[in-house]
């Protein structure tokens, strides 16, 4: 509750992240915060290029967001959530997907 209050009290609503093993706490955080870009167990909630910029509050200047559906539906407040849930003993490994593929 304290983290939600802290995030929502900021006049800007660009992005935020939470690190937790508790799915219920993550869901509550995602549902109740106001920023448009949310990371769950990822350090920077930056969406892939196919997602529109989804900042909220004073993070938006002008009448329209930058591109995508948000440019058409600028009265709709969007939220993009990026999350990663790992086992406790998970070790990050470098992906070689697509490298040297024939």
Q: How does this structure look, described?
A:
The chain is an alpha/beta fold and 102 residues long. It is 22% helix and 16% strand. The chain contains three helices and five strands. It has helices spanning 2-9, 23-32, 69-72; strands spanning 12-13, 15-18, 37-40, 56-57, 80-83. Strands 2-3-5 form a three-stranded parallel sheet, with helices on one face. Helix 2 links the parallel strand 2 (15-18) and strand 3. The N and C termini lie far apart (51 Å).
Shape: globular
Task: Give the ordered list of helices and strands.
Answer: HEEHEEHE
Overall average residue pLDDT:
75
Q: By helix and strand content, what is the structural category?
A: alpha/beta
Largest sheet: 3 strands, parallel
What is the β-strand count?
5
* N-to-C span: 51 Å
Helical percentage: 10-25%
Number of helices: 3
Give a short summary of the structure.
The protein is of the alpha/beta class and 102 residues long. 22% of the residues lie in helices and 16% in strands. The chain contains three helices and five strands.
Structural key phrases:
about 100 residues; alpha/beta; three-stranded parallel sheet; two-stranded antiparallel ribbon; 5 strands; globular
Layout of secondary structure:
Layout: H1 2-9, E1 12-13, E2 15-18, H2 23-32, E3 37-40, E4 56-57, H3 69-72, E5 80-83
Parallel strand pairs: 2-3, 3-5
Antiparallel strand pairs: 1-4
